[in-house]
């Protein structure tokens, strides 16, 4: 189920394509974007994974492994147990050197694992991009053994709504609308993560939301500049932004005098 967006509250159309077809394609700019993503967000993810506990022998599943930085970290903590790292494209995992890493091309919406396969399942920036996110979350929970822990992370859009800078606010909100209309992303769904986990019967629930200040010229600003830039042609050609509005946003992301709140990172976890 996709939330209503910013076009007068109308219902979003059915997604036109799947993640990775024309958006989030693994080209050279996407590699750099993933490097910045890891630099900015890995410390938050590692803090939460340390909190829930990853011990030697923990059987781990990393969904949407991307550039492989968290899979590498999990391999170091969970050895000698295997860490299964999945994605639609696992080419970037070739650089991860770990004997207990098992890379796997896997579509979380279609491909399965046996029930009770893992002690820890982690998914970052995956579920909010899937129209069938609630069903996928339920399937993922089935892959946990009793006592296993699920950790999920996604962006929450709410800091953008109150931004005093109309250029920044509009560019990211309209980019979110493009993703919603194209692949079914819901950038507001994650704020209810703990409730979703509770409905699936998970216990020992926890949640944390990180709201960081974004300053132009920093790694965080660079991440968001590249993230929006990957959709530049669609944003302009389909009327979500004018060329001038796009250029204004890019200039803000490079201006060290620009400060505002970035989209929040919402994390939640629970035990089966």
Please give a structural write-up.
- There is one protein chain.
- By secondary structure, the chain is an alpha/beta fold.
- The protein has a single domain (28-271), classed as Vaccinia Virus protein VP39 (Rossmann fold, 3-Layer(aba) Sandwich), CATH 3.40.50.
- It is built from nine helices and nine strands.
- The chain has helices at residues 28-52, 69-78, 133-142, 158-161, 166-183, 193-199, 219-229, 232-237, 243-254; strands at residues 60-63, 83-87, 101-105, 118-124, 144-156, 203-210, 213-215, 259-261, 264-271.
- The chain has a seven-stranded mixed beta sheet with strand order 3-2-1-4-5-9-6, sandwiched between helices. Strands 7-8 form a two-stranded antiparallel sheet.
- β1, α2 (69-78) and β2 (83-87) form a beta-alpha-beta unit.
- The longest helix is centred in the first third of the chain and has 25 residues, at 28-52.
Topology:
Blueprint: H1 28-52, E1 60-63, H2 69-78, E2 83-87, E3 101-105, E4 118-124, H3 133-142, E5 144-156, H4 158-161, H5 166-183, H6 193-199, E6 203-210, E7 213-215, H7 219-229, H8 232-237, H9 243-254, E8 259-261, E9 264-271
Parallel strand pairs: 1-2, 1-4, 2-3, 4-5
Antiparallel strand pairs: 5-9, 6-9, 7-8
């Amino acid at each position: 189920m996709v939330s209503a967006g910013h076009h007068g509250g109308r219902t979003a159309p059915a997604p036109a394509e799947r993640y990775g077809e024309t958006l989030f394609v693994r080209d050279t700019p996407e590699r750099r974007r993933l490097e910045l993503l890891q630099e900015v967000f890995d410390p938050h993810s590692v803090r939460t994974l340390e909190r829930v506990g990853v011990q030697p022998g923990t059987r781990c599943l990393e969904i949407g492994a991307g550039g492989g930085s968290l899979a590498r970290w999990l391999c170091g903590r969970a050895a000698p147990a295997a860490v299964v790292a999945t994605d639609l494209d696992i080419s970037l995992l070739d650089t991860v050197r770990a004997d207990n890493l098992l890379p796997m091309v896997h579509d979380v919406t279609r491909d399965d694992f046996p029930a009770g396969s893992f002690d820890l399942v982690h998914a970052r920036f995956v579920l909010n991009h899937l129209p069938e996110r609630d069903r996928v979350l339920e399937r993922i929970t089935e892959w946990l053994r009793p006592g296993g822990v699920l950790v999920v992370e996604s962006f929450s859009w709410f800091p953008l709504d109150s931004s005093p800078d109309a250029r920044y606010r509009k560019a990211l909100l309209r980019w979110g609308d493009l993703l919603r209309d194209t692949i079914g992303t819901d950038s507001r769904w994650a704020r209810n993560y703990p409730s979703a986990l509770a409905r699936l019967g998970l216990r020992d629930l926890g949640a944390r939301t990180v709201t960081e200040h974004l300053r132009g010229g920093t790694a965080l600003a660079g991440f968001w500049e590249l993230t929006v830039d990957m959709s530049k042609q669609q944003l302009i050609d389909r009327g979500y932004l004018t060329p001038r509005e796009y250029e204004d946003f890019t200039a803000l992301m490079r201006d060290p005098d620009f400060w505002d709140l970035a989209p929040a990172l919402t994390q939640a976890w629970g035990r089966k």
